[in-house]
Amino acid sequence: MPRQVTRLDRVVIRFAGDSGDGMQLTGTRFTQESAIFGNDLMTLPNFPAEIRAPQGTIPGVSSFQIHFADHDILTAGDAPDVLVAMNPAALRANLADLPKGATIIVDTHDFTGRNLAKAGYDADPLESGELDAYQLHRVDLTGMTVEAVKEFGLSRKDAARAKNMFALGLLCWLYGRPTESTIGFLERQFARAPEIRDANILAFTTGWNFGETTETFAVRYEIAPAAQAPGTYRNITGNLALAHGLVAAAVRSGLPLFLGSYPITPASDILHELSRQKVFGVTTFQAEDEIAGIGAALGAAYAGSLGVTTTSGPGVSLKSEAIGLAVALELPLLVVNVQRGGPSTGLPTKTEQADLLQAMYGRNGEAPIPIVAPSTPSDCFAAALEAARIAITWRTPVMLLSDGYLANGSEPWRIPDLDDLPAIDPGFATTPNHTSKASSNGADEFWPYQRDPETLARPWAVPGTAGLEHRIGGLEKGDGHGNISYDPANHDLMVHTRAAKVARIADTLPPLTVDDPSAARGDGGARVLVVGWGSTYGPIAAGVRLVRGAGHDVAQVHLRHLNPLPRDLGEILKRYDRVLVPEMNLGQLSLLLRARYLVDAVGLNVVRGLPLTSGEIADAIEELL
Amino acid sequence: MPRQVTRLDRVVIRFAGDSGDGMQLTGTRFTQESAIFGNDLMTLPNFPAEIRAPQGTIPGVSSFQIHFADHDILTAGDAPDVLVAMNPAALRANLADLPKGATIIVDTHDFTGRNLAKAGYDADPLESGELDAYQLHRVDLTGMTVEAVKEFGLSRKDAARAKNMFALGLLCWLYGRPTESTIGFLERQFARAPEIRDANILAFTTGWNFGETTETFAVRYEIAPAAQAPGTYRNITGNLALAHGLVAAAVRSGLPLFLGSYPITPASDILHELSRQKVFGVTTFQAEDEIAGIGAALGAAYAGSLGVTTTSGPGVSLKSEAIGLAVALELPLLVVNVQRGGPSTGLPTKTEQADLLQAMYGRNGEAPIPIVAPSTPSDCFAAALEAARIAITWRTPVMLLSDGYLANGSEPWRIPDLDDLPAIDPGFATTPNHTSKASSNGADEFWPYQRDPETLARPWAVPGTAGLEHRIGGLEKGDGHGNISYDPANHDLMVHTRAAKVARIADTLPPLTVDDPSAARGDGGARVLVVGWGSTYGPIAAGVRLVRGAGHDVAQVHLRHLNPLPRDLGEILKRYDRVLVPEMNLGQLSLLLRARYLVDAVGLNVVRGLPLTSGEIADAIEELL
Amino acid sequence: MTAEPSLHPLGSGLELVPTSHEPQSGKDYTSDQEVRWCPGCGDYAVLKAVQSFLPDLGLRRENIVFVSGIGCSSRFPYYLDTFGMHSIHGRAPAIATGIAVSRPDLSVWVVTGDGDALSIGGNHLIHALRRNVNLTILLFNNRIYGLTKGQYSPTSEAGKVTKSTPVGSIDHPFNPVSLALGAEATFVARTIDSDRRHLTSVLAAAAAHRGAALVEIYQNCPIFNDGAFDDLRGPASDDRILRLEPGLDVTVGDRTWRHDPTAVDPSDQFALSRLEDPVPVGIFRQVERATYDDEAREQVASAVAASTATREERLAGLLNAGDTWTVV
Amino acid sequence: MTAEPSLHPLGSGLELVPTSHEPQSGKDYTSDQEVRWCPGCGDYAVLKAVQSFLPDLGLRRENIVFVSGIGCSSRFPYYLDTFGMHSIHGRAPAIATGIAVSRPDLSVWVVTGDGDALSIGGNHLIHALRRNVNLTILLFNNRIYGLTKGQYSPTSEAGKVTKSTPVGSIDHPFNPVSLALGAEATFVARTIDSDRRHLTSVLAAAAAHRGAALVEIYQNCPIFNDGAFDDLRGPASDDRILRLEPGLDVTVGDRTWRHDPTAVDPSDQFALSRLEDPVPVGIFRQVERATYDDEAREQVASAVAASTATREERLAGLLNAGDTWTVV
Ligand SMILES: Cc1ncc(C[n+]2csc(CCOP(=O)(O)OP(=O)(O)O)c2C)c(N)n1
Ligand SMILES: Cc1ncc(C[n+]2csc(CCOP(=O)(O)OP(=O)(O)O)c2C)c(N)n1
Ligand code: SF4
Ligand code: SF4
Ligand SMILES: [Mg+2]
Ligand SMILES: [Mg+2]
Ligand 2: which residues within 6 Å by Cβ? Predict the structure, then answer.
């Protein structure tokens, strides 16, 4: 049946269903197809903390949102244009996020009395008229799936489980997605269970055909590919990009990678991924707790590996003492914090960026460490490399602050050329570096705390190096020789030196890129600067676009280095009358900027466990204009 | 022999010897006598991290400094007027601190070749002329002690151990100290070892007589009693005052006290002291680690005790996660951090105040807690009571930030009247506080997170209260009912509410006392304000006196509450052109003030493991005048 | 070191907890919170068993406290209408120690998993056992990390392929019963989720024990480690299971003896714990030894009893102790 | 669970560590740092014994690493002229695990105290033992916290009066040997500071063991717990001490057997560990079992061996994996 085709520049779809309904898989496949099709896209998964919360209930709802477009986009979308709801709870849990006029596709099969009650509905919303403001499509997805796959003789339950593929097929038809990659995926995924494989493929194609043959949907949509820079792309989540970045850092530094970790949401997938990369000489050690995880990583670093520990906020709390030891030992170490909702256990599966000040100050004593934060899922790759460069060059623990949104969200990533990746030189010490009074012919002693005059880094002398035997520890060390020292003046010197070492990293940071089209005009232009860090990059940039779209000038700068702050930041801040700092916390970067630059930064602080919306950022900017 | 008596207004004496020489005891006794005599005084013990560092070496030197005066004083003295050195190492380790012209009394007995070498002397300083600028008194303290006590038939080693009492006797004579209390003390202390008791008493009196009868010392000194407010006094260290304050808080709140702790320098003495106070219903639990210590204290708090945990910086690092849980549970809990030199193991026996930002931010997520800091050793008593008042009233963990100097330093304390101590009302919940939809006659449900509208505190409902059964935990809780909630808007509300609750404590804080004599003059007066917190109180006030003594105006304000900051602080800061913040860290309070008030606070940041000196503070003030 | 005979005869684990005069049913112990485990999870069976068993204790509901750590099993307290705390990962034994020591009138239960108790919380567990704090500890052993979606745990068998061990685990597992016996435990038992009768009888003995009682419960996780204990279920399992009873003749290797859970020397009980085929279930050890909390309270009580002054008077005495002087 | 027979025959604990061709003496192992224990401290004797024993191993000095926690005994590494780390309280086994797993060519030693190893560090210790990481662990047991000036420790006897227990401790102590056996240790021994010969022979066996070797060393603290082991010293101690040797007939209660440290089932070894009079010293257990670090390296090595590509090529492959598309 020939159908009207409407061209759109962007669409936001949210797939929502019960935790057991396979919504994450459905969303991921739709994403993959859109990526291959050439749209720009970003995704936002959202799932409960329970493994399988009670079926049919609001807490059990799992969803996956994808925003795809014919141009470059920055967020997973403030609000869905289309909601696919597999049961009453999924409808109810997500309806409030939909703008009036949005499209809703529901699987009618589950809209029974019991299920409606479980979701807290007194009346059937499909009948009550409460969805009148939306474009509602009632489809018996389950029923049609079961019917379609009955030839395979699966149990009714198994048959019904393919309904997500039916839904996927339908949406693929609706938005003109290529289907080969999903069929290929299903073939690989269920290679060992042919009936399930075939049932899923059939459900998928039946869903597509249902769109094509029935008249339920009067319009198909077309979203043209986005212009992308030449290169090879893949869609990638933040956790995967981060794991790849760590492997790349190991390869580029020539070091073996040692991960000491304890599972915790939303960081565990980095452990899972790295445990599969043994071919790179990667050792993963699942420790008895977070302290042992970082302890082993520090031991491996001492012994000459790229030591890494991955965790989330509660784990960082436990690791604080050991991070302090790494500061005292001045050994390279990566501490990856995939931030989640806090305080305490908080909201394990939700995103937040409230661990910045913990990264800065969460240790006893003056224990400064560099902090690096990626801004988008794919940027986790480069940020991991940068964190490794700093850790190895300055012999210091580095905190890499990702978050739950980056971790599980995805976007297309242009795969870099290996030659474009930085080379990192571990520069191990191999010979004595100090001349004793007794010596007449050159250096004859090894001083573990004799510093590089430029970086202030100390030598990294690994066990097995003859003549470099030395002892280090957590007690204060004498400048240079590194033996225990209780001398007051030495302590003051060492405290200041450790701070100076971290501060000097700023010497190697590139100038910040200020996004301010008005600056070129030379007529003053933007008066408001929006400063962000981490995963708020997308929403802020999108918010800035909205404001510019409304005809106003506004500037944006995004920080990847939180400690030390870039040298040119102070001067940039001074150029603008007002500074807005949107954060998913109560104002942590704000605090640092206010204290350091005495600038009256204004915060937009919303702590919902979800990314900020571009709309609320635009509003906040407009209030300052 | 009649002797010339010179009147002095203040003297600083430092007793220094090997760790085994009993210098801490000697200093404590001299202190006690001076207190009873009626001088104002402050003390500063200083000892190595080793139990007994190798005898005769510099690292093995232990010292005790006392500053006593006929007027109120504020510090243990920048530099000693008198050094008592029991061996070459003690001389060498302390000489640099002495101003020229100071008095040195050495025990010549140990100035032998071997001991000189151990201390790093090439030549005997008593002979080399390098002490010419000082008033040197050579006394064979050991020899005379051994001689004096030989009648008791002690081993030579045991006999020689009484030399510290000989030295004490001599100093008592020199400064006209009353001797009864020391004799009484020795009688009690060695009641079970009569020879040792008698030998010590004899050594003490022989030392006194030595001064009286020989002509070694031409002058005796007199330091008149200081004017003190009427009352009963005792000399007290910070750790003891803090322990007493905790007991007082338990008595005044009617709660049993439960201490969960793990030993760590310099906090262990609070555990030791409280373990002796079972008569107050105090339970002390020496846990397997710091986490178990706070865990048990939190459990006891949940069950209705005043839960306390005591530690130092490394222990706070380990407790971070559990403090976060206490924030989420909103239960009263006292976390006492007796700060020491950091980072990591750092300088365990030295003082520092570098854990303030850890107290503020050292947890994952937004986890605000109130912070209280005592300013002098005896003030630890009142600060502990204040911390307990806040914890119990607002159902929150509170950080009490003492430090190594306060812990072991001492000063006279006017013992308060019990009636003047605040009463603290635990106000346990006893009945349901919420009305369910179903109820027709009043509250019939218990909502653990329904808040007091004024304080925003939640009810404290302890197990055993019928009808108030409820479950709490570290996952985000729904406002009011407290059940697990993943609702985005609820999370934002709860994060903001927890912050607001802590902020509201400021409503109950008294106005700050600004010490600014010039303010009354009404001619503008002081332009510089010095802001401090914690144990820098004494040095700052003394530095301010020096500046005023030199004819300049300067104002001082000292903070006991670091979170929330007092409401009137912002307005006070604005009154002055320049703000100086001296701290034994790299500028932690500075950072908070700059961020909060956008005031260009200047730091004086010296991190030596020792109190700041009034001299360096005066210099820093004068630079800003 | 052999366990000493108890210093004074110990009572029941619950003797200081007030009893209820009202008749109770399982419903009284059911909270209003929806249970959120996966369908088929073994935790349901244990929850049901506990809910039906608690009324038998006849205690006042408000004097019962359940403390848990983090993990699927650690959601347990939310579903019981008693006092409860869902704390942080691994720390429940420490928190429960504070509750038990400060409140003799409470029945204190710890709910934990194989990761929570033996991985991050291993130290607190062994210290609670050696101190013999009056706690009943239910260790849900599904040999997997459930909540974090399927990594191997300290009880997973060597070679296990999981999310974090794609080519098989290389950790030699703990045997929780052996570990507890090595840690001076006074009560150690093992049971299985699916055998309600056995589970309930072991729980009854554990609750009655004065001191720390560790109950290892084999629990099925159908999602990440399905069937781990299948050969110990149902009638066919009879020769795979050894049901320990006091006085039962047991044979390990070439030695046979009469099982005595009350034997002070734990060596024979330890030898039993090493058996893998058949798998012993039931009570391995059940001996009396003074409990930490009773003794702690006893020390406080005798200090208090030795003074006739009021608390205020004692405080005045404390503050005025030592060398004082008076200025008038 | 009985320990499985080793998967493949294990070599010596040191077989992958390069040996030295130079003759060595104790002096070579003495650093330039002044030893700072109290006069008479048992730590001196152990230090001397280790310094004189290390040359016998014939290893390259730079391939030896000593890792310690915090405590008096944990100052140990400063005094040895090898690589060393004085880390943080209780965490040495974890740090050493990272060193041992990442570097087969190092001989890794852990030095720890009864507080460091059994109180705050208890969990890391038992996990290192069960994993059988190739470490030699010297546990200095003086039954007291020395460095913090005399609080009771997890091995202090009940009733002990210390700074933190003015009316006597109420903790039932751990028996480190029993605990280790319960934690699946493959090598467990006990010796005493004052018996240099015995100490050295136990150290030699521990160092030769491939896997985690725990050596409990009774150590006198003359300052805070003087004489704790006096009855085990000198000639008069002969009937207070049982010197374990393989094949020795041992009697516990009414049972006599031939001591076999290599027995896979640890039950008899455990039974011996419960003896208090006489006190057994020597090797309780010494069995072969695959080590964590060997297996971890084996998994990595076989993955690497299976690929012929360079590391760079593999990286390119990794980054380009999955569904990719190309824009030209
Ligand atoms: C400090 C900290 N580390 C890690 C986690 C993540 N975590 C939660 S539960 C769990 C393990 C659960 O395993 P188990 O105790 O066996 O319980 P189960 O889910 O199998 O019942 C982990 C690693 C956490 N919540 N907190
Ligand atoms: C995190 C932390 N907690 C506490 C301490 C204080 N501390 C140092 S050593 C020690 C115990 C030492 O006892 P043990 O391990 O038996 O060693 P010993 O001194 O007896 O040789 C304690 C509690 C610390 N340094 N760090
Ligand atoms: S993941 Fe396993 S243990 Fe957790 S609720 Fe589901 S079935 Fe139960
Ligand atoms: S305190 Fe005891 S263990 Fe520590 S050095 Fe002194 S004697 Fe040795
Ligand atoms: Mg489990
Ligand atoms: Mg010890």
Answer: B 262-264, 290, 314-315, 318, 345; D 70-73, 89, 113-116, 140, 142, 144-148, 153
